[in-house]
Design goal:
The protein is an alpha+beta fold. It contains 18 helices and 23 strands. It has a seven-stranded antiparallel beta sheet. Strands 5-6-7-8-12-13 form a six-stranded antiparallel beta sheet. A four-stranded parallel beta sheet has the order 17-20-21-22, with helices on both faces. The structure holds iron/sulfur cluster.
Length: 471
């Protein structure tokens, strides 16, 4: 399961904004590794530099130094709408001076197809197959006389999830959809301002956290300072998977460190699914905090039974079980002397297709584990996500096809316990109505029949699109 991007922005007259953005993107690398990019503005013009791969591959000292300016935005991409190619990397620049901007987006626009057709009908042209370019063209298509009202117009039309940063030649904007599906926060550094998907990115550059960008809010940062506008009425439905898996454990959401929230999830799992066992371990790294919580609540000692090779990137679609086993073996190495003859509680964040969990269990049993009891921080995933998470179609989700007992048998575990939905909400310690829980219960915050046909969007041949004349 993959998240759909990290965004970052800086407005500072004191600092090298491109370099700060480069460091900010490093901190947000877990949110997307397909491409990275930075755009800067110096009061007159906008510069953009993007490329395929991780931040360290895309940028050199020379490319960062050449960007200049006093405003910057950055983006790490994992594609959920639009294919993986350099033309789709962000930030994307759209429009003609003085009506031009560069934009970076985390989320997924459900009615992008409809808006795309409408904008093409009005003569707007597209260079990419991303919903981000649809957002950008929608903003500049507004006849409103100022940027804030142009954004308000776009927010009235957009359906779905969007945490945005965009810059004009002399202003930085941050915008969050009315549901606040994806995180976005505001920080301060040296009298300047920083926007980031997660607070961990503020920590890494030495910025102080100020507050979260509110659902439905537009923040404008310029020579006048920070100004806040209500773009749309707020109806909070944040993605609960940010708490379970996506966001880094050292980030704060709603004022609480995610590491602690994940420990609470583990403790709740121990109460819901106790078992006689010798050791508790987490599948590294995402389930480590939850395993600590399980161990402390159950009194069963915690162990590190699997060592993760952190330098393995994406393992491509493995065609058969033998290759999938090999992929898991590339990622994890078990510790046989520690595991031999032991009854293990193995905590993991989620089971999506159920294709890698059997390989993990096989690996542990081969290393001598006598029993493997899987404990999962998320309830069974039965519905796909349309809000920016590349999960699977319904037919690929194992819990949409099999009962818990059938899944246990399929993955080869001695027992299997999923967190209850009530238990999950209790661990997060915020009102249930604040969250999107759609992948568990099918209750989407927006009508999903509007979901754009991603394949159709892919098929929009680039050669049909006339290049946007860049300013
Ligand atoms: S459907 Fe699931 S993954 Fe998607 S936004 Fe809602 S909670 Fe998050």
């Amino acid at each position: 399961m993959h998240e759909a991007c990290g965004v970052f922005g800086v407005y500072s007259l004191q600092d090298d904004v491109a370099r700060l953005t480069f460091f900010g993107l490093f901190a947000l690398q877990h949110r997307g590794q397909e491409s990275a990019g930075i755009a800067t503005a110096d009061g007159n013009k906008i510069n953009v530099y993007t490329g395929m791969g991780r931040v360290s591959h895309v940028f050199s000292e020379e490319s960062v130094s050449s960007l200049g300016g006093y405003i910057a935005i950055g983006h790490n991409r994992y594609s959920t709408a639009g294919s993986s190619r350099v033309a789709n990397s962000q930030p994307i620049m759209v429009g003609k001076a003085p009506n031009f901007l560069a934009i970076a987006h985390n989320g997924n626009i459900i009615n992008a197809r409809h808006l795309y057709e409408e904008l093409r009908g009005k003569g707007y042209t597209f260079n990419t197959t991303t919903d981000t370019e649809v957002i950008a063209n929608l903003i500049i298509s507004s006849t409103a006389p100022d940027w804030v009202n142009k954004v308000k117009y776009a927010m009235r039309r957009l359906q779905g999830a969007y945490s945005l940063v965009f810059l004009t030649e002399n202003r930085l904007f941050a915008v969050r959809d009315p549901f606040g599906v994806r995180p976005l926060c505001l920080g301060t550094l040296n009298g300047g301002w920083v926007i980031a998907s997660e607070t961990c990115a503020l920590d890494h550059i030495g910025a102080d956290f100020v507050r979260e960008v509110e659902p439905g809010e537009i923040i404008s940062i310029s020579e006048k300072g920070v100004e806040s506008y209500q773009g749309q009425p707020s109806q909070p439905r944040m993605c609960i998977f940010e708490y379970i898996y996506f966001a880094r454990p050292d980030s704060l959401i709603a004022g609480r460190l995610l590491h602690l929230t994940r420990q609470a999830m583990g403790a709740q799992l121990a109460r819901e699914h106790p078992v006689d066992a010798d050791l508790v371990m987490g599948v590294p790294d995402s389930a480590t905090a939850a395993a600590i919580g399980y161990a402390s609540e159950s009194g069963i000692p915690l162990a590190e039974g699997l060592i993760k090779n952190r330098y393995v990137g994406r393992t491509f679609i493995e065609p058969d079980q033998r290759m999938r086993d090999l992929g898991v073996q590339m990622k994890f190495n078990p510790l046989p002397q520690l595991l031999d003859g032991k009854r293990l509680v193995v905590v993991d964040d989620s089971i999506v297709r159920g294709t890698t969990t059997p390989s993990v269990i096989k690996l542990l049993k081969k290393a001598g584990a006598k029993e493997v009891h899987m404990r999962i921080c998320a309830p069974p995933l039965r519905y796909p996500c349309f809000l920016g998470v590349d999960m699977a179609t319904r037919s690929e989700l194992i819990a949409a096809q099999k009962s818990v007992e059938e899944i246990r048998e399929f993955i080869g575990a001695d027992s299997l316990g999923y967190m209850s939905l009530d238990g999950l909400v209790k661990s997060v310690a915020l009102p249930r109505e604040n969250f999107c829980l759609a992948c568990f219960n099918g209750d989407y915050p927006v009508p999903v029949q509007l979901e754009m046909d991603k394949l159709e969007m892919e098929n929009l041949a680039l050669d049909q699109a006339t290049a946007v004349k860049q300013p």
